Amino acid sequence: MGVKQVGENRYRGQIGRYFEEFQIGDVYEHRPGRTLTDADNIHFSLMTMNYHPMHCDAAYAANSEFGKLLINSGLTVAIVLGMTVADVSGKAIANLGWTDIKLTAPVFAGDTIYAESEVLDKRESSSRPNQGIVKVRTVGKKADGTVFMIFDRTALIQKREGNTLDEAANY
């Protein structure tokens, strides 16, 4: 997301935002995008033991309404979630949950996907004075603008003051 000066002519890359930096209504466009391949799909499907033939048997998929392999939705959720880390959860203590995951269009090998997240809500943690809770809605879009996924996510985010993680890890 940014850099922090750590010495004369020396800078360190930073990931994520502190709780105070989130503003309700802000939208983060996550970049870079990711072009998905058949290899990504087959490796992920077999690694996660999802042997559904729509993900790993091209002859079977050729006879489906789509006429080709579908990218495993578990893979698209994982990649879209990963795209959000630099902007949304790089300073998170924990993910608290994902809700209302909707898969609204198929994704195929060769599709390039992007994501964006809108801050829906934020509040101070009632039990952790140096942390807050942030809720975002993330939308996955293909390069042509087709929305293929939407989900809400809540995370426990470190506040700037009282931050011990970044200092302990020399961040």
TrEMBL record:
UniProt lineage: Bacteria, Pseudomonadati, Pseudomonadota, Gammaproteobacteria, Pseudomonadales
CDD domains xref list: FkbR2
Pfam families: MC_hydratase
GO molecular function terms listed in the Swiss-Prot or TrEMBL record: lyase activity
PANTHER family, per the entry: BETA-METHYLMALYL-COA DEHYDRATASE (PTHR43664:SF1), MONOAMINE OXIDASE-RELATED (PTHR43664)
Protein name: MaoC family dehydratase
